[in-house]
Each structure stands twice: as structure tokens, then as C-alpha cells.
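haha ok so turns out i had the wrong file open the whole time. this is the CORRECT one, sorry everyone. sequence first:
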Amino acid sequence: MLRWASLWVACVTSGVAWAAPAAAPPPATAPPAPVVVAPALVDGPALAAHLVEPSGHVRVVNFWATWCQPCVTELPTLKAFAKAHPDVELVLVNVDAQSSHASRVTRALTTYKLDGLHHWWLATDDPERLLKAHVPRWASEIPFTLVIDGDGVLRDQFVDAITSAMLDRAVTAALLKP
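then structure:
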């Protein structure tokens, strides 16, 4: 014991630092698995009800198709917006014919890594007819995006590709509703 005390005094008086060996770094952990929200197959009345249903939070509903280049181009913007605004519900409504869901739509969701988002597939092979009958102000063009406030009131809509700045302004306005 005396030798350790003498060594300690010698180290302290000579300015040499002595410390316990550093702890080993914690073992690397695997990143969390992505949250996958399985696509929901919706019909016209269910879609219409969700668009006007009070939810207490802002919803952004984007209508897109795999064959629509502006739609596909804006998918990364929508994904980034959803990640940056977890308090906003983003729903991607695919308007491809129902017979394309298993092949083209599933491949697009995987290719663009759209896990963690809400996906709806229309339960019809005639999406235009369903949308005209059940979506307020349906423009018959895609991409088409609706911004709905927490009371279920349509606050803004966009026809054509949307930018982050456009979404930010529309969502802010929906949050500050009169």
C-alpha cells in the first residue's frame, strides 16, 4: 500500500497524470428498423370522409401515380417534408388503376424508400370517376395536393409539383387558421 501511495505522490508532484484506462466504447447498435405503414385500400366514401374528418392536426394529402413524372419527381420533397414535420399527417394517395398496385406501385414505394408514410390505394380501376365523385375541387390533373386543417377544412390546394416552400407556407397558414 505504501508503494502505491509513494507512486501517487511522485506522479502528482512531477505533474504526470495518471488515470484509469478509458472505458471501452459501447457496442454499435443496429439502426432502428423503419416504420412501414402498409398501404390501405380505400373506396370513394372512405376517402371523402377522411378528407373532411376533424383530426386536430394538419393533413397534407397528395394524389400521385407511377406514370406521372412530376409526381415521381416530387416524392423526395414530400418524404423530406414529412420527416421535418412529424406533427403533420402526410397521406400519399396513389391513383394508378387497382390492377397496378401489386407491381408498379409497390416497386415505386420501395425504390423511393417511402416507408413510414401513409399510403392509400384507390379501390377501383377507374380512379378518375371515383375522384370526381368524392374529392372536393378535384382538378382532374396530378400531382394534386390538398392541405386540410385540424377541423377538416380544406385550406389550400396545388395542381402540379409542389416545393417545400409551398408546403411550409400552406401548412403554416392552416395552423394559423382564422
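The first strand starts at residue 40 and ends at 42.
again sry for the mixup
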